[in-house]
Amino acid sequence: MAMLPKRVKYRKEMRRVRDRKATKGNYVAFGDYGLQALDGAWVTAQQIEAGRVALAHYLKREGKLFIRIFPNKPISKKPLETRMGTGKADVDYWAARVKPGTMLFEIAGVPEAAAKAALVRVAMKMPIRCRFVGRRVSV
Amino acid sequence: MHENAPVLQATSRPKIGSRYAKRMRDGGKLPAILYGHGQQPLPILLETKATLEHIHKGEKVYTLKIEGQAKDQTVLLKDVQFDYLGTRIIHADFARVDLTERVRTRVHVRFVGEAIGLKTVGAVLIHPTTELEIECMVSELPEHIDLDITGLEVGAEITAGQVKLPTASMKLLTDSHASVAHIVLQKEEVVAPTAEAGAATAAAQPEVLTAKKPGEGDAAKGAAKPAPKK
Question: What domains sit in chain B, N to C, each tagged with a CATH number?
Answer without folding.
Answer: 1-97 (2.40.240.10), 100-187 (2.170.120.20)
